[in-house]
Specification:
The complex is a heterodimer of chains A (about 325) and B (about 280). With about 325 residues, chain A is an alpha/beta fold. Chain A contains eleven helices and seven strands. A seven-stranded mixed sheet of chain A has the order 3-2-1-4-5-7-6, with helices on both faces. The longest helix of chain A is centred in the last third of the chain and has 58 residues. The radius of gyration of chain A is 32 Å and the shape is elongated. Chain B is an alpha/beta fold. At the A-B interface, helix 6, helix 7, helix 9 and helix 11 of A face helix 3, helix 4, helix 5, helix 6 and helix 7 of B.
Chain lengths: ~325, ~280
């Protein structure tokens, strides 16, 4: 399955086509991403699952970890399926991009402090993520966290397609037509830092990077390996080969992890470092060429020195012979 | 067409005025170009919640000769629905004028490659949530046409605006593509030819651009590899010359012993340099 650019821009142009989800050959990657997030959930905690209620995570958390799970999803059919599973304490059919319905007001009144808010494939689809974040933070305790995944916009498929002048929304993957917010690991940290300074007044947020899942190579990248070898060589880094990043967000007075992520180099920094190394090689080459000339000259000097010495010694020997005669 | 010496709003205004508009639905036009309003038909709509906005306003089909869409499509969750609504509101032969930003332009590419897309906001200060390149925009219009039953959207013209804010992007050295904004003139009609030729031309241009980038980075890789190889070769050569001359000198020391000249043997090239230096000073 191609989780990068579509061959042509599909932005809401194929409404009747059924959505395809990353299953079968991508199952291992999907499991890893779930594992990264679910490992953070404490047993018997109160969890709010936001979006993707078809994933079965709620059922898992309820049966395996004894969690009290609440669910929000914009799609009524997912709410119904989730209700049938009997795994949820309560369910709300709410579109987080339109928080003006009666159901939303019911949810707002819910008097619960959640330990974890699980946002799989949903945070990137928010029109005003900062507003939703602020609302959820009010529903969290001091030890709580928001667990989420974000598609990696600095992915190699996206970058090389942009070089080719393409940004084609797809039905799934990084450029899923429902995705509205695009981040890299570092730009997400920078955005949270921006919220800390401009948006939140009483507290700061910190983030912990839980890890990433790898981008499954598609037809386009296989082609690039052959046709655009140099671009592939320069721009394929660990970060650009990742599909999505997983984070934990929590309140912290001094957000040290955030700073650490912001200070770490991104793909373009690494490329710049490589370009600078080429300049270093050039000056090293100049130095070596200079040294080479110097060595050549010294070699000549030394052989000259040896010749002169030999000549002098011979002269002295001849002088001695004369004296003896 | 490049217009580097005027700001984007002036460019947009000039492009709109060119079309000699008689009546129009104006969607979210910035204050300073409201003088394009030609008649009492004009309406001002806040598109921050476009979804279902057409039904809210109850416009009938074929109401308008012109629709002017300002810096709007980037801020909509569903710009496809928006364009289809606009087509339904247009009379046959009617025009849509709109502006979009190309995120593959050199000026924006560096930010995108770094993942810094959240800073992108419209010149009205609203956040961008939809992104296009020129090609993806044209292909998107083609896809919209596939879903339209009778009339199609023809692309009459696409004029570019080169940002004056461009400041030494990482990609300036290896890529052409400074056009950041495009003003598009679309027409509702039964057929479209220009759209297809524009897509075809753009594909060729894009192919040239990526090949140019590939060549640039290929040259860098070739340079990197050749420098590394040369550094290794010259270092080896230098070391080998040094070793050979030290060897020659040390063997000469023995020969000189026979001539009754006593020279110190040396362990390396630097020691040899010192011996020669001393001798040369003595000679002076």
């Amino acid at each position: 399955m191609n989780l990068g650019n579509a061959k042509t821009n599909l932005l809401f142009c194929e409404r009747d086509r059924k959505k395809k989800y990353a299953v079968s050959d991508q199952i291992a990657e999907k499991d890893l991403f779930y594992k990264l997030l679910l490992d953070q959930v404490r047993n018997e905690s109160a969890v709010l699952e936001v979006g993707s209620l078809d994933s079965g995570l709620g059922r898992y958390l309820s049966s395996k970890k004894g969690c009290k799970v609440y669910g929000i999803d914009a799609r009524e059919e997912y709410i119904e399926k989730a209700r049938e599973s009997n795994s949820y304490e309560d369910l709300f059919a709410v579109d987080l991009n339109r928080r003006d319905s009666a159901v939303w007001q019911d949810f707002e009144k819910l008097d619960i402090k959640f330990d974890h808010i699980l946002m799989t494939d949903s945070f990137c689809q928010l029109k005003q993520p900062e507003e939703v974040l602020r609302f959820f933070l009010d529903k969290m305790g001091s030890e709580s966290n928001i667990l989420l995944n974000l598609p990696n916009i600095t992915n190699l498929d996206v970058i090389i397609n942009l070089f080719y002048g393409k940004f084609n929304y797809n039905k799934y993957g990084i450029l899923n037509e429902n995705n509205l917010n695009f981040y890299s690991r570092r730009s997400f940290a920078k955005w949270i830092q921006h919220l800390n300074s401009e948006f939140f007044e009483d507290f700061n947020l910190d983030i912990y990077w839980l890890g990433f899942t790898r981008f499954p190579e598609n037809e386009f990248l296989s082609l690039c390996k052959e046709k655009y070898k140099a671009l592939y060589n320069f721009f394929s880094t660990e970060e650009s080969l990742s599909l999505q990043n997983c984070f934990s967000i929590y309140k912290k007075e001094n957000p040290v992890n955030l700073k650490r992520i912001i200070e770490s180099p991104d793909s373009l920094d690494l490329i710049n470092e490589r370009l600078q190394k080429i300049n270093v090689y050039e000056s090293l080459m100049d130095n070596l060429a200079g040294e080479n000339k110097e060595v050549e000259k010294l070699c000549l000097d030394i052989s000259d020195f040896l010749d002169q010495l030999a000549l002098r010694a011979k002269k002295e020997m001849k002088g001695d012979e004369y004296a003896q005669d | 067409m490049h217009k580097t010496n005027q700001n984007l709003k002036d460019f947009w205004k000039e492009e709109v005025l060119k079309n000699n508009i008689k009546d129009a639905l104006i969607v979210d036009v910035p204050q300073d170009i409201t003088d394009v309003r030609p008649s009492d038909y004009a309406q001002f709509i806040d598109t921050s919640d476009w979804d279902n906005i057409i039904s809210k306003f109850n416009f009938s089909k074929d109401s308008f000769e012109n629709i002017i869409i300002s810096d709007t499509i980037h801020t909509l969750i569903d710009p496809t629905l928006f364009i289809i609504d606009c087509v339904n509101l247009l009379r046959s032969g009617g025009n849509i004028s709109l502006l979009f930003q190309d995120i593959s332009s050199n000026n924006l590419l560096e930010g995108v490659v770094r993942g810094d897309m959240f800073y992108q906001s419209s010149f009205n200060g609203r956040k961008y949530i939809r992104f296009f390149t020129k090609l993806s925009f044209l292909e998107w219009i083609k896809k919209i046409n596939d879903s339209l039953r009778s009339s199609k959207l023809e692309v009459v013209s696409v004029n570019s605006y080169q940002s004056t804010l461009s400041s030494g992007s990482f990609f300036d050295a290896c890529s052409f593509g400074d056009d950041e904004y495009y003003f598009v003139h679309l027409k509702k009609q039964d057929f479209c030819r220009n759209l297809y030729s524009l897509i075809s031309d753009q594909l060729t241009l894009n192919e040239d651009r990526i090949n140019c980038m590939e060549d640039h980075f290929s040259e860098l890789i070739a340079k990197e590899q050749s420098l590394k190889a040369n550094i290794l070769a010259i270092s080896k050569n230098n070391e080998s010359m040094k070793e050979k001359i030290v060897e020659l000198y040390n063997s000469s020391v023995i020969s000189f012993e026979r001539l009754n000249v006593h020279l110190p043997s040396v362990n390396n090239f630097d020691e040899l340099k010192e011996v020669v230096k001393k001798f040369q000073e003595e000679q002076k």
